[in-house]
Amino acid sequence: MKTSACRLLFLVLAWAAAAALAGAFRLFSHLPPVGVQLSILGLTVGFSVALVCAGWLRAAMADLGVRPVLAFHVTRFVGIYFLWLHAQGRLPAEFAERAGIGDIAAAAGALVLLFWPEGPGFRRALLVWNIAGAADLLLAVGTAGWLNVTRPGSMAELAALPLTLVPLWIVPILLGTHVHLLRAGRASSKGQGSRVKLGEPAPV
């Protein structure tokens, strides 16, 4: 495994461990409602900027390619769990239905794209899925923030394990990879140097 890939794996695992610790100590329960959304925003922006500015991280993502990134988005079948929690009366309908159904659709789309042959059709489908998937995440985060403010305590399930991994780890990574794929797809469509492939960093 290349050094950049090893560093990326270490980053992702260390991030997951930190998110798990935050859940174990119920960090979110000690933050004001807006603090949760600011935490997600900060992690997402930080990771997205790192994907653009950190050379080793760009190299790791380029080596990784598109398919493994799509495979990570299959984790969005967690939306089924959101709907189950709502059925148990543990999550508000507004969040469970918007985030749950949207995530299930995004995960199913990622699964289809995993097996879609490379070509113009794949790139078009990837672009549509990318925009819809990012919009779904933004809607889910916005809904959770609104509920935190208007109905304090209604999103308590996200403050404890295992769901604390969703806002502190999975969502920032998913949004960051959406940014990465959009950027890579734009570079590919512009045909920068005929040898640029989707998933590779644009030449500088």
Structural description of this entry:
It is a single chain. The chain is an all-alpha fold and 204 residues long. It contains eight helices and no strands. It has helices at 3-24, 33-53, 55-64, 66-73, 79-87, 93-114, 120-150, 165-189. The longest helix has 31 residues, at 120-150.
Question: Strands, helices and their partners?
Answer:
Blueprint (H helix, E strand, L loop, with lengths): L2 H22 L8 H21 L1 H10 L1 H8 L5 H9 L5 H22 L5 H31 L14 H25 L15
Helix pairs in contact: 1-3, 2-3, 2-7, 2-8, 4-6, 5-6, 6-7, 7-8
If you compute it from the alpha carbons, what radius of gyration comes out, rounded to the nearest whole angstrom? Answer: 17 Å
Helix-residue proportion = over 70%
Total beta strands:
0
Distance between the termini: 25 Å
Low-pLDDT residue spans: 192-197, 199-204
Shape call: globular
Output the structural class: mainly alpha
Give a short synopsis of this structure:
By secondary structure, this protein is an all-alpha fold.
Features:
204 residues, mainly alpha, 8 helices, 73% helix, 0% strand, globular, disordered C terminus
